[in-house]
What does this fold into?
Amino acid sequence: MDDKSKKMWILLGVLAVIVIIIIVAALQGKKSSQTAGTPAGTGQTAGTEQPTGTTTPTGTTTPVQQADANKVYDLKGATAVVPGASLVTKDQKVVTPEGKAVKNDAIPNTPEAPKPVLVSKDQLPKQTISLEIGNGKITPSSFTVPTGAPVSLAVTSTDSQVHVFIFSNSAVGAIAMGISGGQTKAITFNAPAPGTYDFRCDVPGHKDKGEFGTMIVK
Ligand SMILES: [Cu+2]
It folds into this structure.
């Protein structure tokens, strides 16, 4: 046997060993993914599981794409200005409990809409914009907020009737609350694009009596 064919046999031997190692690793990967539910097996096989696991890209790519389409904001330091209402992140974004931006044009009272909360009027934080509704008027009938800023709006029913506070513009259609006699409800949202947004009481006849006003966004 000359030097050349010796080298060739050694090479073939090494190749065979590599192939065997790959097969064994693949088999172990299969086993470990089958037994992934058992906590004892997962710790030890984690090393071999990863390279084989990546061969199934469908499992790993879909969550990433979803995250891009629907950004989740960092909830660290997020606070509810009004307890129980939607959270406001450190960078002033009003979000759902999952950290997604609330949608001002969602259907009211759905998970993606700003969340109205029943509060006691004397426990409202200072920065709350407080409106009173009842007896044919809303006071004050106008308020101004800066665009994009988190706004906490509270509405109190000052008579014994139910009132339904809504905006006319569907872009802020999710900012809506039904308030029973004597109740106060509050809602936190990011102020929309600059403009004038009419609000009113949606109970038949109440707007005609004078229950309406405007939110000015600058
Ligand atoms: Cu009313």
User: Anything to note?
Assistant: The chain has two domains: 3-69, 87-217. The CA atoms of residues 92 and 150 lie 6 Å apart. The longest helix spans residues 3-34. The first strand starts at residue 87 and ends at 88.
